[in-house]
């Protein structure tokens, strides 16, 4: 203990020196020793929260700790990931199949953790692929992507992937409206011909499997962001819209003309009932559903050929428009479910709608016209209040569970704290620079954990040592446990984080899986004991059933392979010890290496093009004899008659 | 004598704990094993403290040429010890019952305790012999052949009792619940013997 105290004192003194030094150089070096103590997670200690930051154009999801800002892992989701072989191995290639073929990349935006009764339950995290519309589900005990479903009739899958409060649905709205079904037509006939689809994807409560239950075909606006109702407003879903002008060119100007766009309020319970009673129209479609089976460690793709569409006019009382000023971006619902916040991105003010007032207006049938037959409520009738913030460009709002809301302002580059109900501004702090989303763990659920807020910025500039024109995006952590926010840390992120989701570590850490059980491995090419290792030829395809354990491959000498063969290395890691992966790489591999976790089987295809004796080796420094973990494959000319032969230690 | 006999009946029953709980426990911690690997030594065989510990200990030990840990069928002890314990419990309880009905004297109590103690010591001796063999009878083709400072080949006998630093591992060997229950039971029979003896003096 004494030693530790001494170390802490020394370290504290060091940090103070550092911060003094920085203050001389820069006036915004806000790092004080108390801030340092707040984010300092001592060696051997662990963070209080997990934070899952979307990777934007990296296509993946990164896992960080709060308050330390340390990155723990990058989870491959929509992008090929040579580190582990995701999207390269035979088992995981199907994960990236779509109706457009194999799409090895996407733009990953809005992660959302599964909930029960409106509270985070930490079973799965969902994230949307924006570019080729897809929704992924990641298992939060293995931290692996288990399922990806493509969303048909969608384009720019942006108002996604938000879940209802018992994870009944993960919801995916389209940003671009498109012809539905897609067809060859002039672009300038957009108006009233294009449509926007809002997809309700049901989630199996036991296994999490997703199924596109129905698609609501809405007018051809842009559906920007969404959030579910909760508590009293459970059963409703709210979507911001822009481009109610239905412009199809120079939207920068042409989609910014209306003073007010809408928040679409969708009573999904009503539509679910309609659909369960046989309502809706089945429409031909073509979309991929990719499911990874943990038993076989293998993904399969199913192409679905039909989707159930719903015309909102056929379900009276299901959809209303709430006028909301200035092309609202974020659409956030407070923990009680009473307030729906429209962040009018071209304005200085926030618009807050009241759920109770909305219901009263609907019951009183006080409409202010309609759009494509959908009733528009009167702005004044549903307005709960406006936050006169003095900031510019509000984008997103999160909540601390103590009656406060926190909104990011992109243009004025700040986070503003304000009070729900009185709409008064309590505090504001600058961000560095041009903040997009912000995240409080559980901050968009019934039960936020209001201790930290993370602001994710779009512009980095001078925050870190320069690394040429391209830099990672910056993020800041603020302590929000007091009245005033306190900037306590600044760290670079990976890719471009859009939204993020956080959860207390004590919910996830205890159930994080350490190994895959070899005795539960059902991979058809798995070898359960080294004596089962073998090499089998089938025409010009050769299947190598290989096992690994510290520190050798079985077999490690293989002869009888010929130029022109397609060689499948099926590798099973026989370790059953935490954190002992083995890697596999062979010269001239046109895919990527494999990183195989204990008990797992993965397959790499190798097509040798040259005669010779070619080495393979373990890429993960697995043990003291890691360098010796290697082997040879003899490749003979295509017309040779060398017998297949394999061995270890002969 | 009634009280002493009751203790003599109860005491040996504590040995039944050996059928459920481990006799001895060896834990192996290392920098890269913050959750130590562990061996529970039962009278009927070895068990890992965690499910895959035996496999993982064997995996590590192959580098230094140690034998794999024995399965129950590999050592006669794992067949015999449960029998011996069973017989000793039966004899002990029988002596207690006979004592209760004044058929035998306290000397039988002390006699049982002495016999059990001798067998315990023999058991420990046998266990130590195995540890010596396990730690010193190494594969001549071992991957790592380490030597002590004086040039003699390094051996890896785990301690019978206590802690030893062995390469990167901290090895701690301690009696486990089964042994403590056995110890308690034997103390009860010793107390029974002493009570019986005091009783005999008084009369």
Automatic annotation (TrEMBL), chain A:
What's its top-level EC category?
oxidoreductase
Output the Gene Ontology terms for molecular function: nitrous-oxide reductase activity
Q: Where in the cell is it found?
A: Cell envelope
Listed Pfam families: nos_propeller (PF18764)
PROSITE patterns for this protein = COX2, PROKAR_LIPOPROTEIN
Q: Which UniProt keywords apply?
A: Copper, Metal-binding, Oxidoreductase
Name the source's superkingdom: Bacteria
User: What is the E.C. number?
Assistant: 1.7.2.4
What's the protein here called?
Answer: Sec-dependent nitrous-oxide reductase
What is the name of the gene encoding this protein? nosZ
TrEMBL record, chain B:
Keyword Membrane present in the record's keywords: the answer is yes
Q: Which UniProt keywords apply?
A: Membrane, Transmembrane, Transmembrane helix
**Listed transmembrane segments:** 7-27, 81-101, 108-125, 177-197
Q: Which domain of life is it from?
A: Bacteria
Recorded protein name is Copper chaperone NosL
Give the source species.
Flagellimonas zhangzhouensis
């Amino acid at each position: 203990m004494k030693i530790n105290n001494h170390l802490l004192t020394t370290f504290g003194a060091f940090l103070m020196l550092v911060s003094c030094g920085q203050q001389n150089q820069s006036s915004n070096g806000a790092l004080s020793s108390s801030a340092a103590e707040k984010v300092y997670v001592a060696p051997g200690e662990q963070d209080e929260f997990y934070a899952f930051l979307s990777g934007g154009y990296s296509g993946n999801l990164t896992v960080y700790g709060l308050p330390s800002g340390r990155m723990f892992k990058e989870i491959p989701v929509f992008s090929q990931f040579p580190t582990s072989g995701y999207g390269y191995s035979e088992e995981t290639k199907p994960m990236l199949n779509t109706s457009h073929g194999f799409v090895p990349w996407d733009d990953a935006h809005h992660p959302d953790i599964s909930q029960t009764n409106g509270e985070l339950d930490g079973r799965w995290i969902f994230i949307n692929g924006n570019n080729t519309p897809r929704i992924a589900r990641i298992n939060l005990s293995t931290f692996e992507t288990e399922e990806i479903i493509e969303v048909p009739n969608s384009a720019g899958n942006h108002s996604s992937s938000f879940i209802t409060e018992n994870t009944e649905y993960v919801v995916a709205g389209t940003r671009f409206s498109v012809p539905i079904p897609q067809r060859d037509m002039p672009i300038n006939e957009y108006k009233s011909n294009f449509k926007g689809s809002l997809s309700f994807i049901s989630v199996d409560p036991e296994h999490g499997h997703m199924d596109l239950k129905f698609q609501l075909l809405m007018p051809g606006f842009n559906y920007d962001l969404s959030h579910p109702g909760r508590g009293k407003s459970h059963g409703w879903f709210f979507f911001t819209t822009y481009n109610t002008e239905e412009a199809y060119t120079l939207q920068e100007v042409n989609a910014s003309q209306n003073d007010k766009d809408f928040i679409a309020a969708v009573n999904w319970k009503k539509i679910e009932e309609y659909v369960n009673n046989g309502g809706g129209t089945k429409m031909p479609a073509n979309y991929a559903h990719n499911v990874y089976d943990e038993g076989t460690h293998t993904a399969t793709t199913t192409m679905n050929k039909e989707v159930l569409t719903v015309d909102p006019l056929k379900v009276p009382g299901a959809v209303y428009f709430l006028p909301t000023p200035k092309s609202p971006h974020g659409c956030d619902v407070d923990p009680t479910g009473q307030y729906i916040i429209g962040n009018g991105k071209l304005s200085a003010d926030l618009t807050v709608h009241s759920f109770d007032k909305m219901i009263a207006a609907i019951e009183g049938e006080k409409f202010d016209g309609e759009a494509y037959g959908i009733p528009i409520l009167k702005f004044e009738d549903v307005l709960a209040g406006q936050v006169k913030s003095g900031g510019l460009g509000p984008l997103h709002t999160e909540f601390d569970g103590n009656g406060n809301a926190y909104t990011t302002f992109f243009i004025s580059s700040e986070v503003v704290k304000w009070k729900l109900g009185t709409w008064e501004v309590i505090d504001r702090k600058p961000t560095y620079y041009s903040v997009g989303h912000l995240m409080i763990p559980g901050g968009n659920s019934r039960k936020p954990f209001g201790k930290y807020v993370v602001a994710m910025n779009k512009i980095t500039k001078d925050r870190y040592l320069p690394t040429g024109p391209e830099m990672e995006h910056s993020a800041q952590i603020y302590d929000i446990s007091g009245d005033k926010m306190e900037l306590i840390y600044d760290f670079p992120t990976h890719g471009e984080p859009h939204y993020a989701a956080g959860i207390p570590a004590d919910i996830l850490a205890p159930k994080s899986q350490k190994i895959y059980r070899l005795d539960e491995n059902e991979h058809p090419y798995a070898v359960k004991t080294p004596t089962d290792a073998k090499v089998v030829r089938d025409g010009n395809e050769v299947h190598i059933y290989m096992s690994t354990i510290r520190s050798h491959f079985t077999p490690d000498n293989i002869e009888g392979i010929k130029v022109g063969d397609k060689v499948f290395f099926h590798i099973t890691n026989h370790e059953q010890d935490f954190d002992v992966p083995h890697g596999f790489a062979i010269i001239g591999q046109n895919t990527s290496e494999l990183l195989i976790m204990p008990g797992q089987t993965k397959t790499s295809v190798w097509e040798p093009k040259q005669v010779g004796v070619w080495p393979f080796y373990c890429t993960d420094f697995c043990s003291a004899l890691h360098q010796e973990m290697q082997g040879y494959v003899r490749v003979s000319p295509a017309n040779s008659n060398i017998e297949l032969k394999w061995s270890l230690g002969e | 004598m009634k009280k002493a006999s009751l203790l003599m009946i109860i005491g040996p029953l504590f040995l039944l704990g050996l059928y459920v709980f481990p006799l001895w426990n060896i834990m192996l911690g290392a920098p890269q094993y913050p959750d130590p690997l562990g061996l529970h030594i039962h009278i009927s065989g070895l068990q890992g403290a965690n499910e895959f510990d035996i496999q993982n200990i064997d995996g590590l030990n192959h580098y230094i040429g140690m034998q794999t840990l024995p399965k129950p069928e590999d050592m006669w002890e794992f067949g015999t010890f449960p029998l011996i314990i069973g017989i000793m419990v039966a004899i002990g309880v029988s002596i207690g019952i006979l004592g209760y009905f004044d058929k035998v004297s306290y000397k039988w109590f002390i006699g049982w305790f002495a016999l059990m103690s001798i067998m315990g010591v023999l058991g420990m001796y046998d266990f130590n012999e195995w540890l010596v063999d396990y730690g010193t009878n190494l594969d001549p083709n071992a991957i790592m052949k380490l030597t002590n400072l004086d040039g003699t080949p390094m051996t890896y006998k785990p301690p019978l009792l206590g802690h030893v630093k062995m390469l990167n591992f901290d090895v701690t060997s301690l009696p486990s619940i089964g042994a403590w229950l056995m110890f308690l039971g034997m103390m009860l029979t010793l107390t029974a013997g002493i009570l019986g003896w005091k009783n005999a003096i008084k009369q």
